[in-house]
């Protein structure tokens, strides 16, 4: 639930700061993900064997937490720096994602384990329900 709220707050801030087109939102989101995880959302989905499914539904707790950190950090920077338009917001998206990326890397060094995983974290019963609803 908090992940959705954090995402909505970010998109509202982008709207206030002159991000207009849907494709721009997708690019900005990809910039945050790339800076956070070192890969684009499309690559992350591929790694998990997903096609049309929502990536967030299949993330581990840590993947979700670092995604949220990247988006929350970006929101905080947008609120304080007041970027205008797509180009300035793109730079801020990279900055916010980098904060999460640095935190992810620090954790990986401490644990010796990668945060990104190929595992699918949506419970099996929920996966079946989603598949049934898509038919």
What is the secondary structure topology, with strand pairs?
Blueprint: H1 2-16, H2 22-37, H3 41-47, H4 61-81, H5 85-111, H6 124-134
Helix pairs in contact: 1-4, 2-4, 2-5, 4-5
Description:
The longest helix has 27 residues. The protein has one domain. The mean pLDDT is 90. The protein has 135 residues and is mainly α. It is built from six helices and no strands.
Q: In what range is the share of β-strand residues?
A: under 5%
Terminus-to-terminus distance: 26 Å
User: Which structural class should the secondary elements be placed in?
Assistant: mainly alpha
SSE string, helix = H, strand = E? Answer: HHHHHH
Count up the helices.
Answer: 6
- Helix content bin: over 70%
Radius of gyration: 15 Å
Count all strands and give the number: 0
Produce a short descriptive summary.
The protein is mainly α and 135 residues long.
């Amino acid at each position: 639930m908090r992940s959705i709220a954090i995402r909505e707050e970010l998109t509202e801030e982008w709207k206030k700061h002159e991000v207009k087109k849907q494709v721009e939102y997708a690019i900005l989101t990809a910039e945050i993900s790339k800076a956070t995880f070192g890969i684009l959302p499309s690559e992350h989905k591929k790694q998990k064997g997903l096609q049309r499914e929502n990536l967030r539904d299949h993330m581990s707790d840590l993947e979700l937490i670092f995604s949220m950190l990247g988006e929350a950090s970006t929101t905080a920077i947008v609120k304080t720096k007041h970027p205008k338009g797509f180009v300035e917001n793109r730079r801020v998206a990279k900055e916010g994602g980098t904060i999460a990326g640095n935190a992810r890397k620090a954790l990986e060094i401490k644990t010796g384990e990668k945060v990104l995983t190929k595992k699918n974290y949506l419970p099996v019963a929920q996966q079946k329900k989603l598949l049934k609803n898509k038919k």
